[in-house]
Amino acid sequence: xxLVGQNDKKGPLGxxxxxxxxxIAGIVSWGRPVVRAVRRARLRxxxxxxxxxxxxxxxxxxxxxxxxxxSSPAAGPVPxxxxxxxxxxxxxxAPDATRAPDGRKPPSAQEAHAARVAAARRWRLxxxxxxxxxxxxxxxxxxxxxxxxxxxxxxPGLPPVFTTVPTNQKVVFLTIDDGAEKDPAFLRMMSDLKVxxxxxxxxxxxxDDYGYFRQLQRAGAGLNxxxxxxxxxxxxxxxxxxxxxxxxxxxxKERFGERPVLFRxxxxxxxxxxxxxxxxxxxxxxxxxxxEVFVDRWDYREEDRRIRPGDIVLSHFxxxxxxxxxxxxxxxxxxxxxxxxxxxxxxxxxxx
Length: 352
Description:
The protein is α/β, with parallel strands linked by helices and about 350 residues long. The chain has nine helices and twelve strands.
Protein backbone atom coordinates (compact mmCIF):
# COMPACT_ATOMS: atom_id res chain seq x y z
CA UNK A 1 0.00 0.00 0.00
CA UNK A 2 1.38 3.47 -0.96
CA LEU A 3 0.34 6.23 1.42
CA VAL A 4 -0.26 9.46 -0.52
CA GLY A 5 1.03 12.60 1.15
CA GLN A 6 -0.30 16.12 0.67
CA ASN A 7 2.69 17.10 -1.45
CA ASP A 8 2.80 13.93 -3.53
CA LYS A 9 4.62 14.95 -6.70
CA LYS A 10 3.04 12.07 -8.60
CA GLY A 11 -0.50 13.37 -8.13
CA PRO A 12 -2.25 16.34 -9.83
CA LEU A 13 -1.34 19.88 -8.81
CA GLY A 14 -3.02 20.53 -5.46
CA UNK A 15 -3.91 23.65 -3.54
CA UNK A 16 -0.41 23.89 -2.16
CA UNK A 17 0.91 23.88 -5.72
CA UNK A 18 -1.51 26.64 -6.72
CA UNK A 19 -0.54 28.74 -3.75
CA UNK A 20 3.13 28.24 -4.49
CA UNK A 21 2.74 29.30 -8.14
CA UNK A 22 0.36 32.25 -7.83
CA UNK A 23 0.49 33.38 -4.21
CA ILE A 24 -2.49 33.86 -1.86
CA ALA A 25 -3.26 37.25 -3.40
CA GLY A 26 -3.73 35.60 -6.75
CA ILE A 27 -6.18 33.11 -5.27
CA VAL A 28 -8.20 35.84 -3.54
CA SER A 29 -8.39 37.83 -6.75
CA TRP A 30 -10.34 35.02 -8.37
CA GLY A 31 -13.34 35.95 -6.25
CA ARG A 32 -15.38 34.48 -3.41
CA PRO A 33 -16.43 31.29 -5.27
CA VAL A 34 -12.83 30.35 -5.70
CA VAL A 35 -12.05 31.11 -2.04
CA ARG A 36 -14.97 28.88 -0.97
CA ALA A 37 -13.60 26.16 -3.26
CA VAL A 38 -10.18 26.59 -1.70
CA ARG A 39 -11.66 26.28 1.80
CA ARG A 40 -13.58 23.15 0.83
CA ALA A 41 -10.41 21.66 -0.69
CA ARG A 42 -8.47 22.46 2.48
CA LEU A 43 -11.15 20.78 4.58
CA ARG A 44 -11.07 17.70 2.35
CA UNK A 45 -7.26 17.69 2.60
CA UNK A 46 -7.42 17.84 6.38
CA UNK A 47 -9.90 14.95 6.53
CA UNK A 48 -7.76 12.93 4.12
CA UNK A 49 -4.71 13.66 6.22
CA UNK A 50 -6.50 12.39 9.33
CA UNK A 51 -7.55 9.25 7.47
CA UNK A 52 -4.01 8.61 6.26
CA UNK A 53 -2.68 9.12 9.76
CA UNK A 54 -5.25 6.69 11.14
CA UNK A 55 -4.33 4.06 8.54
CA UNK A 56 -0.64 4.53 9.21
CA UNK A 57 -1.24 4.28 12.95
CA UNK A 58 -3.24 1.09 12.46
CA UNK A 59 -0.45 -0.39 10.33
CA UNK A 60 2.11 0.35 13.02
CA UNK A 61 0.11 -0.79 16.05
CA UNK A 62 -2.21 -3.53 14.87
CA UNK A 63 -2.55 -6.00 12.00
CA UNK A 64 -2.59 -5.33 8.30
CA UNK A 65 -5.49 -6.78 6.31
CA UNK A 66 -4.35 -8.99 3.50
CA UNK A 67 -5.82 -9.36 0.03
CA UNK A 68 -8.20 -12.09 1.16
CA UNK A 69 -9.39 -10.22 4.23
CA UNK A 70 -6.97 -12.01 6.60
CA SER A 71 -4.39 -10.35 8.78
CA SER A 72 -0.77 -10.74 9.62
CA PRO A 73 0.93 -9.66 12.85
CA ALA A 74 2.70 -6.34 12.72
CA ALA A 75 6.47 -6.30 12.81
CA GLY A 76 6.74 -2.77 14.14
CA PRO A 77 6.78 0.59 12.34
CA VAL A 78 8.03 0.56 8.79
CA PRO A 79 10.90 3.03 8.36
CA UNK A 80 10.51 5.75 5.74
CA UNK A 81 12.15 4.99 2.42
CA UNK A 82 13.76 8.41 2.41
CA UNK A 83 15.15 8.12 5.93
CA UNK A 84 18.78 7.12 6.18
CA UNK A 85 19.43 3.93 8.18
CA UNK A 86 20.84 4.42 11.63
CA UNK A 87 24.60 3.87 11.82
CA UNK A 88 26.64 2.66 14.78
CA UNK A 89 28.42 5.47 16.68
CA UNK A 90 31.81 4.40 15.31
CA UNK A 91 30.67 5.29 11.80
CA UNK A 92 30.64 1.72 10.46
CA UNK A 93 27.70 0.59 8.42
CA ALA A 94 24.91 -1.12 10.34
CA PRO A 95 24.52 -4.82 9.42
CA ASP A 96 21.57 -5.92 7.32
CA ALA A 97 19.49 -8.20 9.55
CA THR A 98 17.97 -9.87 6.49
CA ARG A 99 21.31 -11.18 5.25
CA ALA A 100 23.66 -13.92 6.39
CA PRO A 101 27.14 -13.01 7.71
CA ASP A 102 28.60 -13.67 4.26
CA GLY A 103 26.29 -11.02 2.76
CA ARG A 104 23.91 -13.41 1.03
CA LYS A 105 20.20 -13.35 1.71
CA PRO A 106 18.98 -16.57 3.37
CA PRO A 107 16.92 -18.80 1.08
CA SER A 108 13.15 -18.83 1.33
CA ALA A 109 11.37 -21.93 2.61
CA GLN A 110 10.57 -22.95 -0.96
CA GLU A 111 14.19 -22.46 -2.07
CA ALA A 112 15.50 -24.42 0.93
CA HIS A 113 13.14 -27.31 0.21
CA ALA A 114 14.09 -27.33 -3.48
CA ALA A 115 17.77 -27.46 -2.47
CA ARG A 116 17.10 -30.42 -0.16
CA VAL A 117 15.25 -32.26 -2.92
CA ALA A 118 18.10 -31.64 -5.37
CA ALA A 119 20.74 -32.75 -2.85
CA ALA A 120 18.82 -35.93 -2.04
CA ARG A 121 18.64 -36.71 -5.75
CA ARG A 122 22.36 -36.06 -6.27
CA TRP A 123 23.32 -38.44 -3.46
CA ARG A 124 20.76 -41.07 -4.52
CA LEU A 125 18.71 -41.04 -1.34
CA UNK A 126 15.37 -42.82 -1.37
CA UNK A 127 13.70 -39.89 0.42
CA UNK A 128 14.41 -36.27 1.25
CA UNK A 129 15.75 -36.10 4.84
CA UNK A 130 13.34 -34.53 7.30
CA UNK A 131 14.11 -31.14 8.82
CA UNK A 132 14.68 -31.37 12.60
CA UNK A 133 12.61 -29.21 14.96
CA UNK A 134 14.23 -26.18 16.62
CA UNK A 135 16.47 -27.06 19.58
CA UNK A 136 14.53 -27.20 22.85
CA UNK A 137 14.60 -24.02 24.91
CA UNK A 138 14.64 -26.11 28.09
CA UNK A 139 17.33 -28.75 27.72
CA UNK A 140 16.53 -32.31 28.81
CA UNK A 141 18.06 -33.51 32.06
CA UNK A 142 20.74 -36.06 31.17
CA UNK A 143 21.26 -38.84 33.71
CA UNK A 144 23.19 -42.10 33.71
CA UNK A 145 21.24 -44.89 32.06
CA UNK A 146 20.11 -47.58 34.48
CA UNK A 147 22.59 -50.44 34.44
CA UNK A 148 25.44 -48.21 33.25
CA UNK A 149 26.49 -47.04 36.71
CA UNK A 150 30.05 -47.69 37.90
CA UNK A 151 30.83 -49.87 40.91
CA UNK A 152 31.50 -48.26 44.25
CA UNK A 153 29.89 -45.65 46.48
CA UNK A 154 27.89 -42.81 44.98
CA UNK A 155 30.11 -39.91 43.98
CA PRO A 156 28.35 -36.67 43.03
CA GLY A 157 29.48 -34.78 39.97
CA LEU A 158 30.56 -37.68 37.80
CA PRO A 159 29.59 -37.21 34.11
CA PRO A 160 26.40 -39.12 33.25
CA VAL A 161 26.71 -42.05 30.85
CA PHE A 162 23.81 -42.10 28.38
CA THR A 163 22.73 -43.76 25.14
CA THR A 164 19.52 -41.83 24.48
CA VAL A 165 18.48 -38.21 25.03
CA PRO A 166 15.14 -37.96 26.89
CA THR A 167 12.87 -36.28 24.35
CA ASN A 168 9.45 -36.81 22.80
CA GLN A 169 10.62 -35.29 19.53
CA LYS A 170 11.09 -37.82 16.76
CA VAL A 171 14.80 -37.15 16.32
CA VAL A 172 17.98 -39.22 16.35
CA PHE A 173 21.60 -38.17 16.67
CA LEU A 174 24.37 -39.35 14.33
CA THR A 175 27.84 -39.74 15.88
CA ILE A 176 30.98 -40.87 14.02
CA ASP A 177 34.11 -42.14 15.75
CA ASP A 178 37.91 -41.94 15.50
CA GLY A 179 38.77 -40.17 12.20
CA ALA A 180 40.74 -42.89 10.40
CA GLU A 181 39.08 -42.33 6.99
CA LYS A 182 39.22 -38.84 5.47
CA ASP A 183 36.87 -39.13 2.53
CA PRO A 184 36.37 -35.88 0.57
CA ALA A 185 33.10 -37.23 -0.82
CA PHE A 186 31.75 -37.62 2.71
CA LEU A 187 32.57 -33.98 3.43
CA ARG A 188 30.83 -32.86 0.24
CA MET A 189 27.81 -35.06 0.93
CA MET A 190 27.24 -33.82 4.48
CA SER A 191 27.77 -30.21 3.49
CA ASP A 192 25.37 -30.62 0.59
CA LEU A 193 22.65 -32.38 2.59
CA LYS A 194 23.20 -30.21 5.70
CA VAL A 195 22.71 -33.20 7.99
CA UNK A 196 24.04 -32.51 11.52
CA UNK A 197 26.42 -34.97 13.18
CA UNK A 198 28.95 -35.22 15.98
CA UNK A 199 32.48 -36.61 15.57
CA UNK A 200 34.47 -38.19 18.42
CA UNK A 201 38.13 -37.94 17.42
CA UNK A 202 41.33 -39.75 18.42
CA UNK A 203 44.57 -37.89 17.86
CA UNK A 204 46.61 -40.86 16.63
CA UNK A 205 44.47 -41.12 13.46
CA UNK A 206 43.69 -37.44 12.82
CA UNK A 207 47.12 -35.88 13.36
CA ASP A 208 48.18 -36.49 9.75
CA ASP A 209 45.39 -34.19 8.50
CA TYR A 210 43.89 -31.84 11.08
CA GLY A 211 42.77 -29.65 8.18
CA TYR A 212 40.20 -32.22 7.05
CA PHE A 213 38.47 -32.06 10.42
CA ARG A 214 38.62 -28.27 10.47
CA GLN A 215 36.61 -28.45 7.25
CA LEU A 216 34.06 -30.67 9.01
CA GLN A 217 33.93 -28.16 11.84
CA ARG A 218 33.39 -25.22 9.48
CA ALA A 219 30.56 -27.18 7.83
CA GLY A 220 28.84 -27.49 11.22
CA ALA A 221 30.01 -30.80 12.68
CA GLY A 222 30.60 -30.99 16.42
CA LEU A 223 34.11 -32.24 17.28
CA ASN A 224 34.59 -34.08 20.57
CA UNK A 225 36.99 -36.26 22.59
CA UNK A 226 37.75 -39.95 21.89
CA UNK A 227 41.21 -40.02 23.63
CA UNK A 228 44.71 -39.63 22.27
CA UNK A 229 45.47 -43.26 21.32
CA UNK A 230 42.17 -45.19 21.54
CA UNK A 231 43.37 -47.37 24.43
CA UNK A 232 41.22 -49.73 26.52
CA UNK A 233 40.78 -47.32 29.42
CA UNK A 234 39.80 -49.70 32.25
CA UNK A 235 43.19 -51.37 31.77
CA UNK A 236 44.99 -48.11 32.62
CA UNK A 237 45.60 -46.42 35.96
CA UNK A 238 43.74 -43.27 36.89
CA UNK A 239 46.75 -41.19 35.82
CA UNK A 240 47.01 -43.12 32.57
CA UNK A 241 43.37 -42.46 31.78
CA UNK A 242 43.75 -38.82 32.71
CA UNK A 243 46.66 -38.54 30.30
CA UNK A 244 44.58 -40.02 27.46
CA UNK A 245 41.53 -37.83 28.08
CA UNK A 246 43.10 -34.55 29.19
CA UNK A 247 45.78 -34.85 26.52
CA UNK A 248 43.08 -35.04 23.85
CA UNK A 249 41.34 -32.04 25.40
CA UNK A 250 44.57 -30.08 24.88
CA UNK A 251 44.79 -31.22 21.25
CA UNK A 252 41.17 -30.21 20.63
CA LYS A 253 41.79 -26.76 22.11
CA GLU A 254 44.98 -26.22 20.10
CA ARG A 255 43.69 -27.55 16.77
CA PHE A 256 39.98 -26.71 16.86
CA GLY A 257 39.64 -23.86 19.34
CA GLU A 258 37.85 -25.38 22.34
CA ARG A 259 37.89 -28.16 24.90
CA PRO A 260 34.82 -30.35 24.39
CA VAL A 261 32.34 -31.22 27.12
CA LEU A 262 31.41 -34.49 25.37
CA PHE A 263 33.53 -37.63 25.61
CA ARG A 264 33.22 -41.19 24.32
CA UNK A 265 35.49 -43.90 25.75
CA UNK A 266 37.04 -46.24 23.16
CA UNK A 267 34.93 -49.37 22.60
CA UNK A 268 32.41 -47.91 25.06
CA UNK A 269 34.44 -49.30 27.98
CA UNK A 270 34.91 -47.29 31.19
CA UNK A 271 35.15 -47.58 34.97
CA UNK A 272 34.99 -45.19 37.91
CA UNK A 273 38.49 -43.88 37.21
CA UNK A 274 37.41 -43.10 33.63
CA UNK A 275 34.57 -40.88 34.84
CA UNK A 276 36.73 -39.26 37.52
CA UNK A 277 39.48 -38.54 35.01
CA UNK A 278 36.98 -37.21 32.47
CA UNK A 279 35.50 -34.87 35.09
CA UNK A 280 38.97 -33.56 35.97
CA UNK A 281 39.52 -32.75 32.27
CA UNK A 282 36.32 -30.67 31.95
CA UNK A 283 34.07 -33.36 30.47
CA UNK A 284 30.41 -33.06 31.42
CA UNK A 285 28.79 -35.93 29.46
CA UNK A 286 29.83 -39.43 28.41
CA UNK A 287 27.88 -40.33 25.28
CA UNK A 288 27.56 -43.97 24.25
CA UNK A 289 25.05 -45.20 21.63
CA UNK A 290 21.90 -47.25 21.15
CA UNK A 291 22.40 -48.33 17.51
CA GLU A 292 25.35 -48.71 15.17
CA VAL A 293 25.15 -48.33 11.40
CA PHE A 294 27.52 -49.84 8.83
CA VAL A 295 27.52 -49.86 5.05
CA ASP A 296 25.65 -53.16 4.90
CA ARG A 297 23.70 -53.45 8.19
CA TRP A 298 22.46 -52.00 11.47
CA ASP A 299 23.27 -53.31 14.96
CA TYR A 300 21.00 -52.65 17.96
CA ARG A 301 21.46 -52.49 21.71
CA GLU A 302 17.78 -53.19 22.40
CA GLU A 303 16.33 -56.63 21.78
CA ASP A 304 13.34 -55.31 19.82
CA ARG A 305 15.72 -53.77 17.24
CA ARG A 306 13.76 -50.54 17.15
CA ILE A 307 14.89 -46.91 16.85
CA ARG A 308 13.47 -44.67 19.57
CA PRO A 309 13.15 -40.88 19.84
CA GLY A 310 16.41 -39.40 21.11
CA ASP A 311 18.58 -42.41 20.25
CA ILE A 312 22.28 -41.90 19.60
CA VAL A 313 23.52 -43.77 16.52
CA LEU A 314 27.19 -44.72 16.18
CA SER A 315 29.26 -45.12 13.04
CA HIS A 316 32.95 -44.79 12.15
CA PHE A 317 35.25 -43.01 9.73
CA UNK A 318 35.88 -46.02 7.51
CA UNK A 319 36.26 -46.80 3.81
CA UNK A 320 36.55 -49.71 1.42
CA UNK A 321 39.66 -51.04 3.19
CA UNK A 322 37.46 -52.19 6.07
CA UNK A 323 33.89 -51.86 4.79
CA UNK A 324 31.98 -53.13 1.80
CA UNK A 325 31.56 -49.57 0.61
CA UNK A 326 32.29 -45.94 1.37
CA UNK A 327 31.20 -43.43 4.01
CA UNK A 328 28.61 -41.94 1.62
CA UNK A 329 27.22 -45.49 1.27
CA UNK A 330 26.91 -45.66 5.07
CA UNK A 331 25.21 -42.26 5.25
CA UNK A 332 22.78 -43.33 2.53
CA UNK A 333 21.82 -46.45 4.50
CA UNK A 334 21.46 -44.41 7.69
CA UNK A 335 19.33 -41.64 6.17
CA UNK A 336 17.09 -43.93 4.13
CA UNK A 337 16.12 -45.89 7.25
CA UNK A 338 15.59 -43.05 9.73
CA UNK A 339 13.71 -40.94 7.16
CA UNK A 340 11.46 -43.86 6.20
CA UNK A 341 10.59 -44.29 9.89
CA UNK A 342 9.75 -40.61 10.29
CA UNK A 343 12.87 -39.47 12.16
CA UNK A 344 14.81 -36.27 11.58
CA UNK A 345 18.52 -36.02 12.38
CA UNK A 346 19.25 -33.39 15.04
CA UNK A 347 22.48 -32.02 16.52
CA UNK A 348 23.39 -33.73 19.77
CA UNK A 349 25.04 -30.67 21.29
CA UNK A 350 21.79 -28.70 20.89
CA UNK A 351 20.10 -30.99 23.45
CA UNK A 352 22.74 -30.76 26.16
